Amino acid sequence: MSTNLTEHTITEAVQKTFDTSTDERFKQLMVSMVQHIHDFAREVRLTGDE
């Protein structure tokens, strides 16, 4: 994973960590979950302390 992550690049970087999964359903679930959680974090402007 790149060390040059921003709020705009982190979602895709995390989703790519599932590219090697051999279980397609697991991959689908995790990629979708990451998208939703990251969208939520950006929407409510989570801070590091939270």
What does this structure look like?
The protein has one domain. The relative contact order is 0.14. The chain is built from two helices and no strands. With 50 residues, the chain is an all-alpha fold.
Number of domains: 1
Radius of gyration over all CA atoms, rounded: 12 Å
Uncertain stretches of 5 or more adjacent residues: none
The proportion of strand residues reads: under 5%
- Could you say which structural class the secondary elements and strand pairing correspond to? mainly alpha
Helical content stands at: 55-70%
Number of helices: 2
> What coarse outline follows from CA principal-axis ratios?
globular
Q: Give the assembly state of these chains.
A: single chain
User: Could you tell me the mean pLDDT?
Assistant: 93
Record field, number of beta strands: 0
SSE pattern, N- to C-terminal:
HH
Biggest β-sheet strands, sense, barrel: none
Distance separating the two termini: 23 Å
